[in-house]
Amino acid sequence: MKGDALAGAARLLGRRLEELGRVSDDRDGLTRTFHSPAMRRANALVGRWMRGAGLAVREDAVGNLIGRIEAGGRGAKTLLIGSHLDTVRDAGRFDGALGVLLPIAALGDLRRRGVDLPFAVEVLGFSEEEGVRFSSAYLGSKGYAGRLRAADLKLRDAKGISVRQVLGIRAAPGPAHRARSLLGYVEVHIEQGPVLESRGLATGVVSAIAGQTRARLLWRGRAGHAGTTPMAMRRDALAGAAEFVLAAEAFARSHSPLVATTGAIAALPGAANVIPGEVVLSLDVRHPRDTGRRAALARLLALARGIASRRGLGLDWRQTQDDGAVACSTDLTALLARSVRAVQGRCPELTSGAGHDAVVISNLAPVAMLFVRCRGGLSHHPAEHVSPRDRETALRVVVDFIEGLSATHERRI
Amino acid sequence: MKGDALAGAARLLGRRLEELGRVSDDRDGLTRTFHSPAMRRANALVGRWMRGAGLAVREDAVGNLIGRIEAGGRGAKTLLIGSHLDTVRDAGRFDGALGVLLPIAALGDLRRRGVDLPFAVEVLGFSEEEGVRFSSAYLGSKGYAGRLRAADLKLRDAKGISVRQVLGIRAAPGPAHRARSLLGYVEVHIEQGPVLESRGLATGVVSAIAGQTRARLLWRGRAGHAGTTPMAMRRDALAGAAEFVLAAEAFARSHSPLVATTGAIAALPGAANVIPGEVVLSLDVRHPRDTGRRAALARLLALARGIASRRGLGLDWRQTQDDGAVACSTDLTALLARSVRAVQGRCPELTSGAGHDAVVISNLAPVAMLFVRCRGGLSHHPAEHVSPRDRETALRVVVDFIEGLSATHERRI
Question: In Å, what is the CA distance from A58 to each residue of A46, A47, A50, A189, A357?
Fold first, then answer.
């Protein structure tokens, strides 16, 4: 009967994702930002579902929704499992929400079956991950992990309101737990990419979350009349930038799992009849290993300098962001992979190119992530979709994982 | 004493260019647009200088300033010589103005020396060439040549005022002359390019004005997350466009005197962390021969299609402009080149990549053009500059040319 009950739980999960997807600050699409009215309604709604699954519910100082089930008695450790409840603008209803509602469904199932756990579980609905309101991501998980800095509290939104004002606090809160009291943090999230779909699998585990470096490349040539400047006398900034776009693409293609993206480009003066004198190009480089990312950056910088020098162009390379890679816990991930294999036969191991709350929580506890296939790899879009069958598969994996962790834990004791 | 008098005339020309350069609609920079208050002041000022050189002055129905010197008696033909008095926004003071003020200085010199010409001369200051006010170029020379169309009269400026309203006319005027009454049209203009400077020469003749085709290329790929989409699964519209930028550059480099320019580019969505799903690219292709331009366009289109097909991208190629090349008159140009050689020793022959009033007047009369070196090839910019020495060289060339044409003309009679 476990199978049938879980199928029902998966259907309920689907209805809840739909209901939560209607809780929005916008009339037309789904948008929920840090401490907005919709976020307060979302916390109230998800809090009710947490209570229904037997969790004790509270909100912390930064608005994270925390549902806790005590188990294992005095001195028992805590398993964290969750994701974020905020969204990008005009979002889909799975990014974040799936990782909060799915563990509630899993704990509901365990409770229904009277499963006794030897550890406490906290389901976390982080209040901020997408960085929409304050152009700074992870405010929720940073608050939970005690990683908010004074500078974060001073951030202001488009209306000039600061994080400090929004939260009504004077100092950043400390971590929610001592590290040694935690078993780990598990996050279920849509893949936001096409790998699982291309392999025909519903779920996979994440071995590492890629480090990420962003740079802004300014190419300086000489603007000139498109009709009167012979080809041989040109210093075309766009041609130089184009050469780099292709060089970065070719380099990343031959250095998998490296990804390099030039997503934004602007040419000045930007008229059809003027040779571009200046081009600004963005570069985003990610690799699951820091050594791989750093080696790639050094090579890309050398390539850019070579192009600029050969073409007589000026080049200004400014790094605007640099985040190290986060390795997932080998133990937790092995256990999670065992559950994936038990449920769907094979278990692919992916690296996450996108950042997640797990990046921040890795400062507090070992982390593991379960990726769930999303249609067409699409995310951050109203058409974002996870099939009912895949949701059920993911739910079965998480239930099996919690029971598996429970068995391991008991063996250890 | 001819030499000394011309040196003085060249200095006066310099002062007049400076004075005319202060006649502007803007307080900060030089801007004169079709029938603006500054254009009326410019016509009045230049008209005074024309009268001073012995010309009879009038304005035609479209505001062209015409200074005419009768000579050669009844049935004598007319030599046209001029350029435009309007400017781009924030212009330099030589583009157009040099070609109007220089022939006034030349005719002043001929008059001072009592030279009798066997033909009439009209110095033309066209009222519109740059296309600023009505986003349509050559309104002045089109009016003079009888080439304005009903559609031109309906054009409206940013305030909704039509050309017809500005001119207060009901129908487009006919041509100012019957073609058989004209000896030709000669235009002195800054090169707007770096060729004369690179050869260390003050002036050169123009063999042809390049034809010009513009197109808008829309590259359609698939937007995707920069972190989660492996390189092998991307359809990056910017990478395709970059490949074309380089292909067009390489093709034009190996097919001189072809020039091909991709001056404007926009990537959508244009975020650092999103693979561009759509890129719009401008293409501007010019060649002094129509066959050369057409062959290049066919090849570039084939290259673009090959790139798009290889990368799985959509391509939409839309032609937005297509103007044929204009060949300068062999006879007039040979005579002009003889004068250039007489004054500066050598005479380079250039093609004009930019359009000029001569393009329109070629419908009415054989045309020739004298290009004058401008510093750094720079034009359409406040720093546009022609040295006093080069102005004097150009003036000597034009005086020699008019006397040469006069001699040829008398020999023919």
Answer: 11, 8, 10, 23, 19
